[in-house]
Specification:
By secondary structure, the protein is mainly beta. It folds into two domains: 34-45 and 113-201, Probable tRNA modification gtpase trme, domain 1 (Gyrase A, domain 2), CATH 3.30.1360; 48-110, no CATH class. Helices cover 13% and strands 36% of the residues. The strands form three sheets. A six-stranded mixed beta sheet has the order 10-11-12-9-3-13, with helices on both faces. Strands 5-6-7-4-8 form a five-stranded antiparallel beta sheet, with no helix packed on it. A two-stranded antiparallel sheet has the order 1-2.
Length: 214
């Protein structure tokens, strides 16, 4: 039987320095000349779930609490839980270890292969975002992490600010429908070219996530 080969919906026009195959995904760990940031990382291989239930607040995905308010997030143990509305939350598994098995509960859907998943972070990352959306990722009234559901490059997206830092630095995660992958990456790379934006591999993303979690 032919083995399944999973394919990211986005492609960077640079050659990877180091890759590995994980769960039938070819994961880029490093690129040549990643620069000093900001960085754009393709996270298509990271497992993502959607959870819907009329009593969503009673659920404990990965033994973590679902936030009480829409737009709030829980971030611990390499897992990010984002409250979307009264009955729905999204769950991102951000670590390098294998994600848990999808729970045996009707409300869960694995959306990994149906969506784009990108991280944009590093020095002046939010200055790039300002060129592509009117959403305020640096809203002083909001404490990271927090979720927005709105347009980015005129595309409906889920966007989570994970870190806010001085002078527009920090970073966020972005998901949208798979069909927008190439167009989304093209727009972001073009908007960030003057600020030194480079594609980066999973190793750099993992270092950032570990630093955020202490």
């Amino acid at each position: 039987m032919t083995e399944i080969k999973r394919q990211s919906p986005v492609q960077f026009k640079v050659s990877p320095r180091k890759t590995e195959v994980r769960d039938n995904w070819t994961v880029t760990l490093e690129y040549d000349e990643e620069g000093q940031g900001p960085w754009l990382v393709d996270l298509a291989h990271k497992t993502r779930w959607d959870l819907q239930d009329s009593k969503i607040g009673d659920q404990r995905p990965c033994d973590l609490a679902v936030p009480a308010d829409a737009g709030a997030c829980t971030f611990a143990n390499d897992t990010l839980i984002n409250r979307m509305n009264r009955t729905q939350t999204s769950i991102y598994h951000l670590g390098t270890a294998a994600a848990p098995v999808l729970p045996d509960f009707a409300g869960y859907t694995d959306v990994t292969e149906s969506t784009v998943f990108l991280a944009l972070f590093g020095p002046k990352a939010f200055f790039i975002a300002e060129k592509l959306t009117a959403l305020d990722f640096l809203d002083p009234a909001k404490q990271a992490p927090f979720l927005y559901q709105g347009p980015f490059c005129h595309v409906p997206c889920q966007i989570v600010t994970l870190e806010k830092a001085a002078e527009g630095s920090g970073g966020f995660l972005l998901t949208c429908s798979r069909g927008y992958g190439d167009s989304m990456v093209h727009a972001i790379i073009e908007a960030g070219s003057a600020l030194g934006l480079r594609p980066a591999g999973e190793n750099r993303f993992t270092a950032w996530i570990q630093a955020l979690q202490g």
